[in-house]
Design brief:
single chain, alpha+beta, Alpha-Beta Plaits, four-stranded antiparallel beta sheet
Length: about 130
């Protein structure tokens, strides 16, 4: 069977990373390429929902790291504070995002983790927040 969703990337989030004034996602792509030789696909900038302490109202960058760069990304991930989207879902922090962001970037991951038994029904997006 042919897999239409064959992914050659890992979805990631860079919490609290704001773009310099007037810059676009190309800035993030260039930043990773020039500083770390990491190939990414920029997705978008988003804000978390307000009212959840330091995690609320924060600006985050969403992007995909291509598999050919994942080892290099793993080496700097903790240093820059980036996270894999799967880890965000495992911690329940995907509920900090607006529904559109959840549907676009986290829902499929949530379904995979639920099916694998890594999260439970109480951990899904519509559940209560932490």
């Amino acid at each position: 069977m042919f897999n239409l969703l064959k992914e050659d990337y890992v979805r990631c989030v860079w919490p609290g990373a704001t773009l310099p004034l007037g810059q676009t996602g190309k800035y993030v792509v260039d930043f990773f390429k020039e500083n770390y030789d990491i190939h990414i696909q920029y997705l978008e900038e988003t804000k978390t929902l307000p009212g959840y302490g330091p995690k609320g109202g924060r600006v985050d960058q969403l992007f995909n790291v291509y598999l050919d760069s994942i080892d290099k990304f793993e080496a700097i991930k903790q240093k820059i504070g980036a996270q894999y989207a799967k880890d965000i879902v495992r911690m329940g922090h995907h509920r900090l995002y607006k529904e559109r962001i959840y549907l676009s970037y986290f829902q499929r991951i949530e379904k995979e983790l639920l099916k694998a038994g890594e999260i439970t029904e109480k951990d899904v997006y519509q559940g209560t927040l932490m």
